[in-house]
């Protein structure tokens, strides 16, 4: 008998060791799915049965069919969900390198994970001069959304009494039977037309540090929760809409996580509620081509959680578009990007080619974080100092276009090892704030008149450089950043002259039509709020 040749033997041995792709399974779920379904597209499971009965393996895929996956299924079983519950709970499942576990929408943005329980039967509260309304609930929710805006139920604007209620505040009264009377005064003093109790995090992917994680969420809409997504180890959120959250949009961001091509919209009601909150365990996280819009705190808040922590580290923030905050509600403290660290080695972040525009107090704030690269960004229309740097060393702030409206271009002092150079500063006007001795004494920046806007059409979010702009050839070469320049030197700003901003060849995500319909460009936010709410 002929013996097997060596290649055949080797192939047989590899087949015994390497998992066969056929081992991976696809499970279909639906809001109308059944617990006895077979997880096929024609007989899908309900999402609760999937999470309680199916042991997902590396390489498995869960396809969410169109419809709304609601928190009301959980509320039907208990009065108030436990903190560990979620509409979609993906914690502790483990993908592997090259074989992630994937949760994706069958049709882009048609699978909706909804953490909001409707609150109805509102009545005008008697004997109170202010426009206060009340209803009865069997529980005290963690957060509220009323007429499209988050309203505090905790420490921030929870009133002490009915007489002290201000716009955006709530007040609870607990009764002997365990039920609650909830009083609210809406932001615009209008009656509650549409209200939701936010009882839990909508998507929970809470892997512990050191776990493999490797879970992908793709094409989903996540809305109306206390928090949108708890981002676990090496998780990826891709092409999702995270919107209408009472607290944080995305939180966690542990090692190797990726958030890309997402829209984070209408988040929070205080300066402590953020679009994406990367905690002290975050390292090697990538945030790219995302849109932030109507965020009450920081669009992106990178924070150590305490002094003495050498993380977060190496967060890459690239080609993102950060639009208006919630200053229209009188909320102060909004900042486009926070880089906050804890001790010696927190930092080494890369903030490259991002646009921050709107009514933020600051576009960028750095504190207790070191060795950060801030290059080729556009920071516009802030209400205070555009860039703030404190208690950190060796930052390189270069090739940016920075506009100062009321304060200075740069506030703070992180010592002579920080370089603020080759930035186009606009507008130049009488009384502008000196950026500080460590920067102006030896670094080269350029000021332009406020009537010389360098962009093609700022009002329509077209930040290509127009012909003749002073930003052209003004920058300096940076490895892995300015690799495509064609002139005598790189341009400042997010695009080289002649590059496309949107479309197939563009660098940035286009503002979606639904967002512009709810919150159009070209009108003041106060004017919008005086005439309508985003849910109209």
Structure description:
There is one protein chain. With 536 residues, the protein is mostly beta strands. Among the domains are: 81 residues, no CATH class; 235 residues. The protein is built from 6 helices and 44 strands. It has a 12-stranded parallel sheet. A 12-stranded parallel sheet has the order 3-6-17-20-23-26-29-32-35-38-41-42. Strands 4-15-18-21-24-27-30-33-36-39 form a 10-stranded parallel sheet. The longest helix has 12 residues. It starts with 5 loop residues before the first helix and ends in a 5-residue tail after the last helix.
Structural descriptors:
536 residues, mainly beta, twelve-stranded parallel β-sheet, 44 strands, 33% strand, globular
Task: Give the tally of β-strands.
Answer: 44
Strand content: 25-35%
Instruction: Categorize the overall geometry.
Output: globular
The mean pLDDT is 82
- Please give the oligomerization state of what you see: single chain
Helix/strand-derived class?
Answer: mainly beta
Instruction: State the separation between the terminal residues, measured CA to CA.
Output: 81 Å
Low-confidence regions: 6-21, 428-442, 523-536
- Share of helix, binned: under 10%
**Adjacency order of strands in the biggest sheet:** 1-2-5-16-19-22-25-28-31-34-37-40
Cα-based radius of gyration, to the nearest Å: 25 Å
Strand count, sense and barrel status of the largest sheet are: 12 strands, parallel
The helix tally amounts to 6
